[in-house]
Structure formats: structure tokens, C-alpha cells
TrEMBL record:
One of its GO terms (biological process) is DNA integration. It comes from the Bacteria. The lineage of its organism: Bacteria, Pseudomonadati, Pseudomonadota, Gammaproteobacteria, Oceanospirillales. It comes from Vreelandella arcis. Keywords: DNA recombination. Signal peptide: none annotated. The keyword Nucleotide-binding does not apply. One of its GO terms (molecular function) is DNA binding. This is Phage integrase family protein.
């Protein structure tokens, strides 16, 4: 599967207006400028112009102190919610107050905000899901991680002080259903007061305050340092300026992991808001336990396609049993069956050790792999410039399996020399009942593997992405392994500081451990 050619991607969406002096050459220049802008935006460098800092917050606090107490209280509440939730001003003004989490509607959007007024306080919102996520059909969803449609996060004490008085005043009126924090007939006035406050601060002090920057500050803070951009998207329901994050389709973290990211980011913002105050680490929220489910296995959000460890272990054992059963036969048909089972096992092992996509001819040439150096080059989804081709380390277990497979393949080719008019160059091939070689395609691989309840073949990528991050590997390393980078973030680009040796040392040991846990073994072929 390939993306569109680079020449097509750089075409201008609007037609050329020759009558106004436009030309195809100018259109190319415009496209190049747009690409340069996208590359810069994709870098997410800290301290950029649109990101707020301590100076901005101190000027905002100074401006707030000049307001009348009643208005200051409401404005502080709005600012606090913008910083706490990372949502837009519209979402903040539509905030609802509840006394019991059971009162939250069954279906809520990722922009909805519900505040539990009991202490320790928390806020709840729907979980962001990327567009065109796969629909759950058939029986295989039962073997995937159970994910929730809402996320509950604690409100740190210092931010609770900003919103507490407003929240408790409204909470008195809460009975069964939720009650809006801000009356509808007052929201527009509050919006104008907020804009006036920021304009005054900018005009008088030279700060760079806007409603959008306040709402995006949590997202930007979550992306500082060795950050996980995918976690930032799930917490704030925002995506980066350069577009959708591919890793959102593959990640299903535990809610406690997201809560740790969130608390760390809120502490950073606290230091900007009140530099001299002591730390106010948020208390673990009792709401998270309810909002997720009763069992720990359900405390996840994100991708619905992350298989459970038990299910993956069962798949590995089933494939090994297929090979063992096929070896018992001695007929020509049995030889073809054991070969096909062995090829499918080796390809599946490669997929679960490298994150290889289920594409036609998984390994098109032996030139793409070096067993002596334990390196494989994968270009399973890329463009004309091979910008998403990636280098991956091979574990000792995978190298041993490929060595066994090479010897098996040579023996099969010798036996089939009469049928093979031309030498079969691709490393992997299936055989039909007559011994004719067949290309390894996703459909043939799916039919041969016979995985329990027939899940999508790409569950290996969902499993690896999530488990690698749960092994405390940095987001940068995981994205380099999975091929989840955007233009301007290529780990192998000319000016990249990404170190291949450190990357290989980090990732290989974790993959080896995961493969052993799953039960993978280096098996000899039928002819050995």
C-alpha cells in the first residue's frame, strides 16, 4: 500500500488563474512554501511564539487583580478551566456541574466538560477518537482491550481554588441532572469580558495572551521535553497544527498513565502561574475508578484494536500447533500444507517483531535484510522519496527463525525445480495443492493463519505500539519503530539527532522480551 506520489501531493488545489498572471511555476513555488511551513510546524519546538510563558501569566494575574471581585472570580474560573481541560472557550462556557458520576449522560462528546463538585474534585470528558476509526464487527472485538468512552482526571488544589467558589455556588442547585456552571444568558457577556481582559493585558504589558493560546497551553505543555504527543491528544482532545496523528489509531494506554502525564503538565503550569508557591500535586482521583469500570482490564482509552496478551499468546500457540499437526503427514499435499503453515508462522513472527504491515510480498527481496548485522529495511507504506522507509533491528530469535526459513526455502525450491520455470525471487511464497508457487498476499495470509475469530491482520501494530510505550520507551523511539512521523520529523533525515545505535540497543531488548513472553520459538522447517 503506497501513498500518492510527491508530484501529486504538491499540486495546487485551486486552478491556475492565467488571466491574473498566475502560472504553473508560481504554483510550484507556493506549494514549496506550504511544505516548508508544514515541516516547521511539525517540529513542535518549545518556546515558540504561540506558546505562553511565565511572563504572560504574571501579566494576566496582574490585570485580573484590577477587576472588581465578582467579575474577577468569574474570569478566574474561566481561565482555570481553560488551563485544566485544554478545551476551547465554547466548551468551557458550556461546563456542567454534577454531584454523582452516574448522572453523566451515557454518550458525551470529547468537548463536553463535567465537574464533580465533591472533593477531591475531578473533571470528566469524552475520549477523542480519530476520524474513520475501524468499526467493531464480528466476534473478534471480544479479544481486544476494553476501552472507555470517557476520561476522568483530578483537579489540582491550586486550580480548584480558582473555580471552587463558582462551582460550589452552582452545586447547591444540583439535584439529579447536571446544572450549567455559567447561565446561558450570561455566557456572551462573559466571553466579551474575557476578550477585553486579554486585550488590556496585551496592550499594557506586551504579553501574547489569547483565548486560543490559553486553551492550547495544556496541549503545548504536555508536548515539552521527551513527551508523548498521542497522550496529549487523548487528554486535551486536540491534534497538532500539522494534522491528524497516525499513532492515535494504534494506542490504548491505561488511564493511570495518562493521569501521570496530566499531573506532571499541571505542575509545570502551576510553576508558571505561581512561581513562588509550593508544589500542589493532584490527589489520585476516586472518580477515575468509577468512570472506567470495575475491573482493571477496562481502565484503558484509545484504540479498540489492541489485542490482549492472552489472545496473542493463544495465536502463537495455535500457529505452532498447525505446523506440528501438518508435519505428521508424508504425502505431497502434506508437504505443501506444512510449508504454507511454516511461511505463515514466519511472516506472522516478522510482523509481531517489527510492526510490519500485512502487505503483498512482506519482504520483497533478501537485499532488504542483513542477518549478520541484524537489520531490516521496511518500506511498506511510503512515497516516491521513501520518506517513511525505516530501519529496524532484528532480535536474535527473529534472526534464528529467518536462518531456519532460508534453509527450508532452499530445500523446497530444489524439490520444486521442475515446477518453477523461473527462480522464485521473493523470500516468501505459498504453494497450492499442485505445488505451484503463489504470491503472499494479505488475503492468502489471512486464510492461512486462521486466527481465532478472524481479527484484522494489523492488530500486531496496535499491540506493539501500545506495549512498547508501556515498556517506558520514549514516544520518539516508538514512532521511529512504527513509522509514525510527519514531514519534518524523519528520524533518518540529514539533520536529525536521532541516534541509530541507541535506538537499536533500546528497542531490540524490549522486542526480544515481548516475543519470549508471547511464546515465539525459532522452529525448523519440514525439510530440516
Amino acid at each position: 500500500m503506497e501513498e500518492r506520489p510527491a508530484t501529486e501531493l504538491t499540486q495546487n488545489d485551486a486552478p491556475i488563474k492565467a488571466a491574473k498572471g498566475d502560472s504553473s511555476l508560481l504554483a510550484v513555488f507556493r506549494a514549496r512554501s506550504q511544505q516548508i511551513f508544514q515541516d516547521k510546524a511539525a517540529q513542535l519546538l518549545p518556546g515558540r511564539w504561540e506558546q505562553l510563558n511565565t511572563f504572560d501569566f504574571q501579566q494576566l494575574k496582574s490585570q485580573l487583580e484590577q477587576k472588581k471581585p465578582a467579575l474577577r472570580q468569574r474570569l478566574e474560573c474561566v481561565i482555570g478551566l481553560l488551563l485544566i481541560t485544554g478545551r476551547s472557550l465554547d466548551s468551557v462556557l458550556d461546563t456542567q456541574i454534577i454531584k454523582r458520576l452516574e448522572r453523566i449522560p451515557q454518550v458525551i462528546t470529547d468537548q463536553a466538560i463535567y465537574i464533580l463538585s465533591n472533593e477531591p474534585a475531578c473533571w470528566v470528558s469524552g475520549v477523542y477518537r480519530p476520524e474513520n476509526s475501524r468499526q467493531l464487527t464480528g466476534d473478534w472485538p471480544a479479544h481486544m482491550r476494553t476501552t472507555q468512552d470517557r476520561l476522568a482526571l483530578p483537579i489540582p488544589l491550586i486550580y480548584w481554588r480558582l473555580i471552587k467558589q463558582n462551582v460550589l455556588e452552582v452545586a447547591i442547585r444540583v439535584n439529579k441532572r447536571s446544572v450549567p456552571l455559567f447561565p446561558k444568558d450570561y455566557r456572551e457577556d462573559l466571553r466579551e469580558e474575557m476578550k477585553a481582559l486579554l486585550s488590556e493585558a496585551n496592550r499594557n504589558t506586551g504579553s501574547r495572551l489569547t483565548v486560543h493560546r490559553l486553551g492550547a497551553h495544556l496541549f503545548n505543555t504536555l508536548n515539552q521535553g521527551d513527551a508523548d504527543l498521542t497522550a496529549a491528544c487523548l487528554i486535551t482532545a486536540r491534534v497538532p497544527s500539522f494534522g491528524q496523528q497516525a499513532s492515535l489509531y494504534y494506542y490504548a494506554p491505561h488511564m493511570k498513565r495518562l493521569e501521570q502525564h496530566y499531573i506532571h503538565a499541571m505542575e509545570t503550569i502551576r510553576q508558571q502561574w505561581t512561581p513562588s508557591s509550593p508544589s500542589s500535586v493532584a490527589e489520585p482521583s476516586h472518580a477515575a475508578a468509577y468512570a472506567n469500570a470495575s475491573s482493571d482490564s477496562a481502565h484503558h482509552v484509545g484504540s479498540n484494536l489492541v489485542p490482549t496478551t492472552t489472545y496473542v499468546n493463544g495465536l502463537v500457540a495455535s500457529m505452532q500447533q498447525q505446523i506440528k499437526a501438518a508435519k505428521k503427514g508424508s504425502t505431497w499435499t502434506a508437504l505443501c500444507s506444512v510449508h504454507n503453515a511454516y511461511v505463515a508462522y514466519t511472516v506472522a513472527m516478522l510482523m509481531f517483531s517489527t510492526g510490519y504491515r500485512s502487505v503483498r510480498d512482506p519482504l520483497p527481496s533478501w537485499d532488504n535484510i542483513s542477518l549478520s548485522r541484524r537489520i531490516i529495511v521496511i518500506a511498506d507504506k511510503t512515497d516516491d522519496q521513501q520518506s517513511h522507509a525505516r530501519f529496524l533491528p532484528l532480535t536474535s530469535l527473529m534472526v534464528e527463525q529467518l536462518q531456519h526459513y532460508q534453509r527450508h526455502r532452499e530445500g523446497i525450491i530444489e524439490r520444486l525445480s521442475f515446477y518453477l520455470q523461473n527462480r522464485w525471487d521473493t523470500p516468501f511464497m505459498f504453494l497450492d495443492h499442485y505445488g505451484n508457487p503463489k504470491e503472499v498476499t494479505p488475503t492468502r495470509l489471512h486464510d492461512q493463519l486462521q486466527w481465532i475469530d478472524s481479527p484484522p491482520l494489523n492488530i500486531n501494530r496496535h499491540f506493539l505500539h501500545t506495549r512498547l510505550k508501556e515498556s517506558d520507551l520514549s514516544s520518539e523511539v516508538v514512532d521511529a519503530f512504527m513509522g509514525h512521523w510527519d514531514p519534518g520529523q524523519e528520524p533518518w533525515a540529514s539533520y536529525s539527532t536521532f541516534c541509530p545505535r541507541e535506538y537499536q540497543a533500546l528497542i531490540a531488548s524490549v522486542i526480544q522480551r515481548l516475543m519470549v513472553q508471547q511464546g515465539w520459538k525459532a522452529l525448523k522447517g519440514a525439510l530440516l
